[in-house]
Prior knowledge:
The complex is a heterodimer. Chain A is an alpha+beta fold. Chain A is 38% helix and 24% strand.
Amino acid sequence: xxxxxxxxxxxxxxxxxxxxxxxxxxxxxxxxxxxxxxxxxxxxxxxxxxxxxxxxxxxxxxxxxxxxxxxxxxxxxxxxxxxxxxxxxxxxxxxxxxxxxxxxxxxxxxxxxxxxxxxxxxxxxxxxxxxxxxxxxxxxxxxxxxxxxxxxxxxxxxxxxxxxxxxxxxxxxxxxxxxxxxxxxxxxxxxxxxxxxxxxxxxxxxxxxxxxxxxxxxxxxxxxxxxxxxxxxxxxxxxxxxxxxxxxxxxxxxxxxxxxxxxxxxxxxxxxxxxxxxxxxxxxxxxxxxxxxxxxxxxxxxxxxxxxxxxxxxxxxxxxxxxxxxxxxxxxxxxxxxxxxxxxxxxxxxxxxxxxxxxxxxxxxxxxxxxxxxxxxxxxxxxxxxxxxxxxxxxxxxxxxxxxxxxxxxxxxxxxxxxxxxxxxxxxxxxxxxxxxxxxxxxxxxxxxxxxxxxxxxxxxxxxx
Amino acid sequence: xxxxxxxxxxxxxxxxxxxxxxxxxxxxxxxxxxxxxxxxxxxxxxxxxxxxxxxxxxxxxxxxxxxxxxxxxxxxxxxxxxxxxxxxxxxxxxxxxxxxxxxxxxxxxxxxxxxxxxxxxxxxxxxxxxxxxxxxxxxxxxxxxxxxxxxxxxxxxxxxxxxxxxxxxxxxxxxxxxxxxxxxxxxxxxxxxxxxxxxxxxxxxxxxxxxxxxxxxxxxxxxxxxxxxxxxxxxxxxxxxxxxxxxxxxxxxxxxxxxxxxxxxxxxxxxxxxxxxxxxxxxxxxxxxxxxxxxxxxxxxxxxxxxxxxxxxxxxxxxxxxxxxxxxxxxxxxxxxxxxxxxxxxxxxxxxxxxxxxxxxxxxxxxxxxxxxxxxxxxxxxxxxxxxxxxxxxxxxxxxxxxxxxxxxxxxxxxxxxxxxxxxxxxxxxxxxxxxxxxxxxxxxxxxxxxxxxxxxxxxxxxxxxxxxxxxxxxxxxxxxxxxxxxxxxxxxxxxxxxxxxxxxxxxxxxxxxxxxxxxxxxxxxxxxxxxxxxxxxxxxxxxxxxx
Lengths: 465, 548
């Protein structure tokens, strides 16, 4: 069976077939692979019994401080011999040139070599040449080493080395551990150039890549839209900019109501909707306000353009125009509030609102639709609480139990449009309405506690969420 | 939604029957009150702006008593006639703040907490039905500091008295220019020469409505007897406000005495209840609930209304302070509340029709799929953005921009007319992320057109060292071709556009119609956004191209 070889393995084999023994570092150089790849490759080859690794330690010898001095100026005993070659000298004379340890060593070694005789005289001791001094093995060794570093095994005169090692700072021994790699017989026959497995380093780190994707919030929006469709609701569309008439007046919000003030609602500068609705609609809505809220309704106020504060303006307009006897429709999209942006408030967020019109449309039916909606989202622990919306009566809100937070949280609201809303617009049947903000649900889904994250477009988040 | 802080021990004491704290906490939501937070006996509650009677613990206790079955039916407004207390109205107020009303509340006890609760009530009434004091405003006074009859009249701006929370005399002008309330509410009086004041028979100024009371009549924990006065632009609105105060003070144990009012179109308040005939068939029609008429009547009484069965109808009596009740639909809600929302079982009735997404949604789903297929990640930006991002950084002409008035956020002041700048801004926030970066967005853009035209645009950007015009053109043409079988061409534009590099951008045409632009982003623009790589972008109008 032929071996499947990795490109790294092939390169190593190739190189070792040319230079039979190499260290990993040498291999890295000859193959142009990284040292990590070489180490990994050697390991694989060893497991396949294609390479062997010899671990050896090598001792290198070089000269120390005194050794270098001896190499340049001779050993102390040689210096001594130079001093007395023209006639005997006293200790004191010699000490002038050879001081301290050098003096002692010079005397001791010259004596040991049998080069000198020492006589006691009145003024101390006198040194004179005994016989001609020839080059010693130690001196030969010092010349051999010189300023290089040589492997210990190359030194023949082990005794000379031993002597030098006994003298301080003449030679230094350096032990270096090294690995050398060579091929086994099996591997030396492999022709790596014709092996074409195409294998690669399957364990190597690779660059991170990210799938392109739709926005997580968009995914939640789509999911919710699908559930509405599943529940029999059809989608209608409307503008984000609306006249105050449809955003407020048609929904029975009195013109001096705090919700209509600049500090809650975005009004558009210098823009007005000349004729926001039909004359009949305007007349009847105006009458409903004057009669029920007891104030003087003004067309001018209703012409002001706003960024819609809810999607209800779209559904009410649809009802007023189509006056369907039976329908389930919904509207989904951005709505706006003039608020300070914070971890829980945005100036612009998504809302969905569905309405049901027809016979047998009771509050209990609306509750049933809600329950089914949450079930589709995987939320089964829900309850209903009464609440207040200016244009529905009765009004309820859904409370959903969140296991992670361990508490009930408020999600969608619902209610039946007030007759003060529907009647002036010629809508005679009860209209059930339900809906709410989508970001809140998406936050639960993506485990976010800051709603702004949805609009930061932080690629790190978008790529990994 | 307004918020009020309650103490459970106190509310337990106010309720006349025996009830556990737990029962109270469990019942609150079914009055329509949201528990915002709870810390031991302290509990913060959000209530609906249409129920100012819930602005004090007395009002909430009144509601709880009903729902808990401790006290049912209406709390009768009992105004004793005594003729001793009177306000006379001077004709001079008619053009400034023509109406005044009020009552006397006697023999009550006021502690610190009661003062806190009454102040909360006052604030709520001022903000809500008082429309920030403009429509109506209220003042509470220590009765025993006042000598009757009172006179509701006007004074010049040089008139002076010692206002509440002060020790020295201030002129009206000083109050308006130096005090917090004066600065906040002075606008209500406009620049009229004279302002409304209430003075007693000894000439002591007790109030300068709707701005501030006098210090001399301040209500303290020593106060036993209270004068309530409401001034207003509208008589009914004034009595609405008064009725809430009366209901609360009665619940707090005060005895209510008549304050005689005369002059102009003013008269002594009666605060009568109203009667509404309720057709019992509505209960089943609206709630889907089949219960007996007597069960309905009992439910209504639990909501502190009165109800008498009359054949298939119920005659309901609505106390004056429940002016949120307009007609039968409100009665239906009261029945639901009295019956108990948690006793209503949801019912799932199948839809008669199949639901359908809008054509636009369907088309946009295709756009999304294909663009993601080309490796673009979807971004979402606000349609309300800033002039800096939209115009200044791109050196674009801002003369046609659409602004909102008084935005609370600097970053959200202008409606976008194009999506591309937002995407470039997104790139600038991601310069530390790996390249290439490809983003797209689909969204609404706005332009001025009697009054506004809205369209849906698609924009995309590619950012990395080698990004270029041709790469983006291939992708854009393919999006239109693959998704919608639309052939598009690019034409060299007559003029350069500040957004793009000269000679590196074009107009996109479908047939003879220009639908968008494409090009390499100008290096000045990239500098403005501190982007250090090449960026190419496009934007096309989808409205009118793939849907109407």
